[in-house]
Each structure stands twice: as C-alpha cells, then as structure tokens.
Design goal:
The complex is a heterodimer of chains A (604) and B (430).
Chain A (H helix, E strand, L loop, with lengths): L1 H7 L5 H9 L5 H10 L28 E5 L2 H9 L2 H8 L6 H17 L3 H9 L2 E9 L2 E9 L3 H19 L10 E3 L2 E5 L5 E5 L2 E5 L2 H8 L2 H9 L12 E6 H10 L3 H8 L4 H11 L7 E9 L2 E9 L19 E8 L14 H17 L5 H5 L3 E10 L15 E8 L6 H21 L7 E7 L3 E8 L17 E5 L2 E5 L2 H10 L20 E6 H10 L1 H12 L3 H17 L2 E10 L2 E9 L6
Antiparallel strand pairs in A: 1-2, 1-8, 2-3, 3-7, 4-5, 5-6, 6-7, 8-9, 9-10, 10-20, 11-12, 11-18, 12-13, 13-17, 14-15, 15-16, 16-17, 18-19, 19-20
Chain B lengths: L17 H12 L4 H10 L1 H11 L10 H4 L4 H14 L3 H13 L4 H4 L2 H14 L4 H9 L2 H6 L13 H11 L7 H10 L3 E4 L2 E4 L9 E3 L2 E3 L3 H9 L2 H15 L8 H11 L4 H9 L2 H4 L11 H12 L5 H10 L22 H21 L8 H12 L9 H9 L4 H13 L2 H4 L2
Antiparallel strand pairs in B: 1-2, 3-4
The chains are: A alpha+beta (604), B mainly alpha (430).
C-alpha cells in the first residue's frame, strides 16, 4: 500500500503543507471516509501509536500577535460542511458562490498534484489538532504552524509525502527523503532560506527557520508552559476553531509601522463613520487589549463569536425595547446609533455625499416647519433604533398581486412633547409633496390619501393609495400605505398602516411615561438582528413564478436556470431557520458579538 | 421606364440565393441564423414568405409578463419585448409590431402605466398583419393612446383636439388632406372616452352624439364612423403604403412603388398582411437599389445581430443598450416616433453602436463552442457567411483577420472578429 501510494503521488510542494494545515474545507465526507473509516492513508517507519490529543497550545509563544488553534480539524470541517446552509450554498447554480467554486478548484488541483485527497492528508497530519501563530520580529513576519497527528506513523508518512513532492517541484527529487539534521529529538528539514520543517512525536511543524522549529518542538519554554498550564486557552465552546489577536501590540505596530491600511483600520473605531456604521459599542471592539474569536458548528447551526476586553471597550447600553421580537417577524433588529453624528460635521464624506446629506437634512428641516435639526430635534431622539419587517395582513387596504413585507422603524423619543407633532407634521408634508410631485409629472393616479388622529397619548397619520376601481388589477404599489405615529416615548414610521397599528398595540404603554436618561443605563444587552429564513422563503415561494421571470429578464437566464436559482435560494433560506446577530456586554469593560446561523437542528 | 414594382420578382429580377434570402429575412423578420438562410434558399422566396406568415399566425403575446405587470416596472416590460424581438417565435409579427408601434408612437413617459403600455403592445401585435381599419379603430380607443394624446380629457362641450389632429396627421392621412374643421368635428366624434380601471371605456354622457361633418361624411359619427370616413380616402391608403414602403423597402425604394402599394391596399380593403406579403415578394423589394440601403434602428440592429449569431444578451441589458443608442422600447421621443434612418447615427450613438457590437460579440464568444474555427481567416469567413450571407469579402477583411489573429486567446479572437463585423457599415445597413 505504501509503495503504491508513494508512486502515485505527484507533487504537493511546500504550499500544500500550508493548504492542508489550514484545512480548507468542503468535501469533508470524502476526507472523512478516507481518514475515519479506513485509517491512516500512509504507513511509515515511525512507530505507530497515538500521539497526545488536542491542539498543542503550549507551543504558542506568549507574545504572538495572532494565535489560532483547533482540537479536531477534520471533525470541525465535517460539522461545518454538514450544515444545511452550507450544502444549499454549495448547490446554488452558476457563479453565485464564486469563492466556494475557487475552494473546490483549489482542492481538486491539490488532489491532482498530490494524488491523494488533501483533506485525508490533513487528517493524517493534524487529526488531533493544530495551532498557528503569527508574530513580528524586527517588523518582519515570524510564524509557526504545528499539526498534531492522531497516529505517529501516519503523521510521519504524510509529512514525507509532502516533502518528497516539494523536492520534486523544486527540481531536486529525493532531496528531502531524509532529514537534513536531527537535534534535540527533532527531525529537521531545511527548505531553503525562508522555511524549515520539523517533526517530533507525531507533531509536524512549519516555520521560518530551523531555530524556530528547534526552539518550539524541542524547547524548554513549551514544556514549562505545558507544566504550568499557563498557556493561552481559546475562547468558545469545545471543538471550535479559536483565535486571539493582540490588539494592543497591533495598534503599536500600526502607529510606528509603515502600513497605512493597518493604521486606517485601527483608527476606524474612533472615526464618526465607524460609529455610524457599527454603533458606539461595536466600533470599540477593536479598542480592547485582545480580541478573541471563535467559529463553531454543531447540529443546530454555526456560530461566529468575537469578544473583546479592555479599559477602552464600551459595553453596549441596555435598551428599553419598544417592541419585543415576535413569532411573525421576518426581520427584527435593535441598534444603537448616535444620530448626532449626522450633523456634527465630523463625518468624513466626499463632496457628493456631503452635498446629498446636507440637502437631505435641509429638506427634513423644511418638512418640520423650520425646526433646527441639531438644536431642536436630534437631542430628543434616543439612540435606540428598532427595525421590524413582517408580512402585511392587508386589513386596511387591498392586497396586491405581488407582495412585499412591511418595514417599520421605531425610534426612542426623549422629551417628546416638543418634537412629537413636528415629526408627524413632517411626515404629513412629505405625503403632500409626494402627491404634488406626481401631479406635476402628470401621473394622474393613484394619489395618497391621508387620515390623521391625535389625542393626548399619540399623534398618528396614515396614508393609502386610492382604492382601485372594481375589477382593476392591484399593483405592487399597494404594498405601501405609509404611516407615522408618535407617542410620549416612541416614534414609529411604517411602510404599511397595518404594521403600524400592530406595533402601536404592542408598545409597552407602561414604559411610555418613564424617562430614564440613556447614559444611566448600562446593562447586559444588546444590539441584535434576527432574520427568519423560513418566513422569507414562504414569501418568495408564494410568488416564485414572478420572481423567476424577473430574474430571467434581468439576467438573461433560461426559465430552467432561473428556477434552479430560486430553488437554491429557497433551500438556503429553509436551511437556516434564523440568522441572529447579538452584541452584549460581558462585563464592565468587555463585549461580545455573536453571529449565529440556526439550522433548527436539521444538520446531519 | 415604368415598371410594375409590385409584381412578383422572378427571373432576371430575382437572383435568389443567400444574399437575397438574407435580405428578405432581415427586412421581414430581423434576419436569421445561417441555417435559416440556407433553408430559405432551398425553399424559394414564396415558400419562405409563407413560412414567415405561418410562424406569425399566432398573434397572442407571451402571457408570462402578466405576472410582472403589477410591479409597475417599465424596465421589465422593455426587457420582455426586447426578448421577443431578439429571439421569440413569429419574428414577422414582432417586426410588424415594432413598425406600427412607431407609427402610433406612444410613450410610457406620459402614460406612466405599464399595464396600459402592455395592452397597447398586445393590440398592435393583434392587428399588425391584419386590417388597418381595425388597427386604427383600436388605437383611437386604446387606453395608453387616450392618456398620451389627452383623449381622456375630450368631452362633450369641452373638446380636446390632440388625438383627432394626430389621427389625421400622423396616423392616417398626412398634412394637407384635412382641414381644421375636420379636426374639430373629429374631436367631437372621439369624445367621451375615459380610462377607468385600467381600461378604455366610452361614457355616453360625455360623448357628443350630435351630427358631425368630417372628411365629407355626415351623421352622428363616433369612432367607427370617423375611421370609415378616413379610410374612404385614397390619401389614407397612400399614407399607410408610404409607411410600409419606408419600413420594409427603405428610402431608396423605386419611384412608383408607394402608389402601387396604395392601390393594392385599397383593392384589398386595407389587409396589411396581404399587401405586405406581395411587397416582400415584389420586384421593388428585391431591386438592387433598396438593398442594404437602410440604417438599422437600435432594436432592429440588436435583434438582427442576436438572431444571426444565435446568442442574445440578457433582455434587460439589450433593452438598455437600445435605449443608449436612442431607441428606448415603449418610450419614443415624441408623438412622431423615432425619425429613423440617418437620425440614428450621431457621434455618440455611433460609438455606442460599436460598444454594443462588442458587448454582443463578447457574449457570443462566451457561448460559442466547437463548430467555430480557431484559424483567423476561417473564423472571419465563417462569421461573415453567417452575419452577411452571400456578401463578397469586404475590403477590410485582411485588417480584420490580422486583428483577430492578434487578439490573444481563441475566445478573444472570436469576440474581436464578431465585433468587427457587427460594427461594420455592411452589417448596420439592412
């Protein structure tokens, strides 16, 4: 078996070691079958037997800028690729998932070069775990990659295959058949000036030079770290791919190095546009001392986590939720954004964007009857923003043939008596101007008809298009029946009156009279986004014929191809019952962002 | 020498072969693939025209678009029609529909109703090869037309003459064949129509049912009476004949052809299909002068290139290209429609035509496989035979072959070669 396999192997190269080590994914079933059911692919002169399990965390230098570890790479990949969403994504037709296609192509190419599935080699080399680190020494990259095989013999044989192929590709066949040195128990191969490979007791290592290999695989410091258990422990659940980034050192390097891109990235959290996009909390995630990250896959879904701790990290403030998430939500999002950023002149925008923003703000002030946005309005808008999308029940108007979900925006109002009516008036003025604009363009129908109601608790204005004549088809425009309401504490804007009415019923009236300053509220929550894939799929399914035709006309796809594409998207949505994104405080100086793709426990 | 130009071409007047067959297919039905041209050569002109009419027998439009009319998105409707022009069945009817859509030019820019525009397109398609009387009657009561020319505001006691004026000037008679009184009286005959529930409907209470005197006809005329009065006039047959000759034969049509077509229309009681059939087989149609003497309009150009290459762009993209070249489907610039011919060519649109040719060629090159030769001169000659059947090699052949050879990859060579032919004056003149 050994000789046959060896003779069939045609060329991995040094890059292949990196490829298999980082464990580029997809097609795990093949790798699983080769690795799990039939045992090691290769035999070797090294004694067979189990190597110590788990990622060799003790080998990672304390000061590394980037640390990555995983205990069971093959199992992780199996779980990841077994996710229905990944399967659906892979099955999407055409070039929809080009990155996935490139990964597949790279794997196929590597298999062609190696003569063996690269993932099987990866299993032999790193079946028990692996670590990677990156550091800078004298501003030059210094890295280490260590893979621990679950079987010493298989690990050694797999490494020899890769080295043999590397020698062939370099034009020196047989050059690496034997180690170039053996020191402190480590077999060492010098691969030129920029790389060295070592092997000891089932662990294979790639590093910049032989000193690094010897220091790591034979070094006392590692043994010390192992004995004291003082080494880094990845965040995240067992079985996750874990990583840690030393942000403090990265900032220093950015400041004193010559990488402008890194400098801009590090400074982004301090920029207003960063805060506008990511919010005041999330934008400080890069201000922590360290950033922990993890990616895990289990039968219920996939989770990506980021956690940061440090004195400059701003934990998210708690939010008084106007609306609680409900079972009929297509989308539910809660965000913290500082609206003042829009007008304080600190945003770095190009001329065109600045002009557009200024025009928009000026028009908004006009609609509000001349109120000053900066002085009168924005201070009274809280940073809490909720976005809710639901299907429209069409209780208050005709249901169109093509249906869209309704979207609502809920904002917090402070000291609302001063702005409640001007805000609703601005909405009314916008409706009037919209009608005038349509009339000027000669668009005779349909016009928006308004109704308004005001009492001591709220001001509400809703508009709807004039009802179609009997027998007249109902166009998509009837998905819009814009409405606006302001209570003592909340402002709601909705694309359809039905949704606004529902949300008004759901408002916590008990909270309406509570006036707690936002700055006083520090708590465990929350920015979050939840998307209900199955509801979105149902909405698409209900009008798939029209969607397929639109795709066909816009993209030039045949009917069959358009159908395949919609099938793929539906499968993708059905595979993840929920997509959620949650930002929460982990302590007084820490926050965590968790993105979860929930498959509803359908993963195999 | 006076000749009977509408007589069937035969003998020495008809050099039936790839060039003549391609001329017929391009003028009547946006061209065809090399196989379709070869089949036409085999069949002969009469059988080819018969086949074109047979394929165009079904006047119903593809009903799929009904799914998307509710979106109100004109771009989707433009894409839908462009798809039909570039590759749908019944190309003869599509071509005729395009001809009459320019005759009864109506723009979405004022109508702003996709459903009405689609309904008008269906009406044009229904009557494009039928009775001109019925077509004119349908257009004068068409919802989009009533909005476009203010027919919805024309009521008893408060007439609006726009529609009546254009009905004479642009749709049926031409200037000099009616009086201002005729217009006023015609407006009364057309009064009372409104568009309600996305349909045109006559409201008797708004219709002026009194006696009128239009073009020599008297009585309580409505739309039917007005159309009958118009169509009684020889000026009408001549006006319609001029449209047919301009579109199908071109500006270099033999003198006298319009008169003969007008007589044929009159004799056939405005049967557009029968007259067109005779025109397409006539000496005048196949005479050397008119051949390759018309500048193809953008939609015609894109449709012809698509059908000849057997590869079409995404419909929305093809419609966008036509728009850039000056012919946005469903959006003619004025009530007079697109001027056409030399007006198609300007400094901007000429560059646009070259860009469009390149884009189409790139698209074709992505799909072309196998049967296309890689050797540059073979590739050029093969493509020339497909795109310009029966034409001699142009003087720029050597330069094109050299550019093809220098293109790099086989795919780039295919794209370069096809783009050069599509952008050439030879291809752009139909």
């Amino acid at each position: 078996m050994q000789s046959v396999l060896r003779s069939n192997i045609v060329g991995p190269g040094l890059a292949a070691l990196t490829l298999v080590a980082v464990g580029t994914a997809l097609e795990p079933s093949r790798a699983g079958a080769a690795g799990a059911s039939s045992g090691p692919l290769l035999s070797t002169q090294a004694p067979h037997g189990p190597a110590p399990g788990g990622a060799p965390l003790e080998l990672i230098p304390d000061r590394a800028l980037v640390k990555v570890a995983i205990d069971d790479p093959a199992g992780f990949l199996d779980r990841l690729a077994g996710q229905p969403a990944v399967t659906a994504l892979a099955a999407l037709p055409g070039n929809s998932v080009q990155a996935l296609g490139r990964v597949r192509a790279a794997l196929a190419e590597a298999e062609s070069e190696l003569g063996l599935p690269p993932l099987a080699l990866a299993r032999d080399l790193g079946g028990a775990g692996g670590v990677f680190w990156l550091d800078l020494k004298n501003l030059k990259p210094d890295y280490g990659l260590v893979l621990r095989g679950s079987d010493n013999g298989a690990s050694r044989a797999a490494l020899e295959v890769l080295l043999a192929r590397a020698a062939e590709r370099a034009g020196f066949p047989g050059a690496f058949d034997a180690p170039t040195a053996h020191r402190v128990g480590v077999d060492l191969w010098e691969l030129g000036d920029d790389a060295a490979v070592g092997w000891r007791d089932g662990m294979a290592m790639l590093a910049k030079d032989s000193d690094a290999v010897l220091a790591t695989l034979g070094g006392a410091a590692a043994r010390q770290r192992e004995r004291s258990r003082g080494h880094w422990t990845p965040a995240g659940p067992t079985g996750a791919l874990g990583a840690q980034f030393d942000l403090e050192r990265a900032r220093l390097l950015a400041e004193f190095g010559d990488d402008d891109g890194l400098r801009d990235l590090v400074r982004l959290p301090d920029k207003p546009e960063g805060q506008l996009i990511f919010g005041p909390s999330l934008s400080t995630i890069a201000r922590g001392d360290v950033l922990d990250a993890w990616l895990t896959a289990d039968p219920n879904g996939v989770e990506l986590g980021l956690a940061s701790t440090g004195p400059d990290v701003v934990p998210p403030t708690s939010i008084d939720l106007a609306i609680e998430p409900g079972p009929t939500d297509l989308l539910f999002a809660t965000l913290h954004r500082e609206p003042g950023v829009l007008v304080d002149g600190t945003l770095e925008l190009d001329d065109e964007a600045s002009a557009s923003l200024a025009k928009g703000l000026s028009q908004f002030e006009l609609l509000m009857g001349g109120l000053d946005l900066r002085r009168d309005v924005l201070p009274r808008l809280g940073p809490t923003v909720q976005l809710i999308a639901r299907e429209i029940p069409f209780r208050s108007g005709p249901a169109p043939e093509l249906r869209l979900p309704a979207l609502a925006l809920v904002m917090e109002l402070n000291d609302s008596d001063l702005v409640r009516e001007p805000l609703v008036a601005a909405f009314q003025n916008a409706i009037v101007l919209s009608n005038v604009d349509r009339a000027q363009k000669g668009e005779g129908r349909p016009f928006l008809l308004r109704r308004a109601e005001v009492d001591e608790t709220h001001a509400l204005t809703a508009a709807h298009y004039s009802r179609p004549a009997p027998g007249e088809p109902i166009d998509m425009v009837y998905n819009a029946a814009p409405a606006c309401a302001a209570t003592a504490k909340w402002l709601i804007l909705a694309s359809h009156e039905d949704l606004l009415n529902d949300l008004m019923d759901e408002l916590p009236t008990a909270r309406d009279n509570r006036a707690q300053p936002v700055a006083d509220r520090i708590g465990p929550s929350i920015e979050r986004l939840v998307v209900d894939g199955s509801r979105a799929a149902a909405l698409i399914e209900a009008q798939r014929d029209a969607i397929e035709l639109a795709i066909s006309l816009r993209r030039g796809l045949s009917e069959a191809r358009a159908r395949e594409l919609v099938d793929g998207v539906l499968a993708l949505l059905a595979a993840q019952s929920h997509l959620s994104l949650e930002l929460s405080a982990t302590g007084p100086d820490g926050l965590a962002l968790v993105v979860r793709l929930d498959s509803g426990g359908t993963a195999e | 020498m006076t000749r009977d130009w509408l007589e069937p071409a035969a003998g020495a007047d008809l050099d039936w072969g790839p060039a003549a067959a391609a001329h017929l297919l391009r003028r009547a039905a946006f061209g065809g693939s090399r196989e379709e041209v070869d089949a036409a050569v085999q069949r002969g002109p009469e059988a080819t025209v018969d086949a074109l009419f047979e394929q165009a027998a079904d006047s119903r439009p593809d009903g799929q678009i009904a799914l998307l009319l509710g979106s109100g998105d004109i771009e989707l409707l433009q894409a839908w029609w462009t798809r039909a022009l570039c590759g749908g069945a019944g190309a003869l009817r599509e071509r005729a529909t395009l001809v009459w859509s320019n005759h009864f030019a109506t723009s979405w820019d004022k109508v702003v109703d996709v459903r009405l525009m689609h309904a008008q397109n269906a009406t044009l398609r229904e009557h494009a090869l039928g009775d001109f009387r019925a077509l004119l009657r349908a257009m004068l009561t068409d919802g989009a037309m009533l909005v476009w020319l203010d027919g919805v505001e024309n009521r008893r006691g408060a007439p609006n003459e726009n529609l009546a004026r254009e009905a004479f000037e642009l749709f049926s008679l031409g200037r000099g064949n009616y009086t201002e009184t005729d217009i006023r009286e015609a407006a009364r005959a057309l009064s009372g129509w409104r568009v309600v529930g996305r349909r045109a409907k006559l409201y008797p209470e708004d219709h002026d049912d009194g006696d009128k005197h239009v073009l020599g006809a008297r009585g309580p005329l409505g739309v039917d009476g007005l159309v009958d009065a118009i169509c009684e006039l020889r000026a009408c047959t001549r006006f319609v004949a001029a449209r047919l000759v301009r579109e199908y034969v071109g500006p270099a049509a033999p003198e006298g052809l319009v008169g003969e077509v007008a007589r044929d229309l009159h004799a056939g009681d405005y049967d557009l299909g029968a007259t067109l059939r005779r025109l397409l087989l006539s000496r005048g149609f196949f005479a050397p002068g008119p051949r390759a003497g018309r500048i193809a309009g953008p939609l015609e150009l894109i449709a012809t290139a698509s059908r000849s290459l057997g590869a079409s762009l995404p419909p929305a993209r093809a419609a966008a290209l036509a728009t850039r070249l000056g012919q946005a489907p469903f959006r003619p610039p004025t009530v007079e429609g697109w001027e056409g011919d030399r007006a198609w060519i300007g400094s901007t649109t000429w560059i646009g035509r070259r860009d469009a040719a390149r884009e189409l060629a790139e698209h074709w090159a992505d799909e072309a496989r196998g049967a296309v030769p890689d050797e540059p001169s073979e590739l050029f000659d093969g493509l020339l035979a497909s795109l310009l059947p029966g034409r001699p090699a142009p003087p720029w052949r050597a330069a094109a072959v050299r550019a093809t050879a220098e293109a790099g990859s086989p795919r780039a060579a295919r794209a370069t070669c096809a783009a050069l032919i599509l952008a050439s004056p030879e291809f752009q003149l139909v």
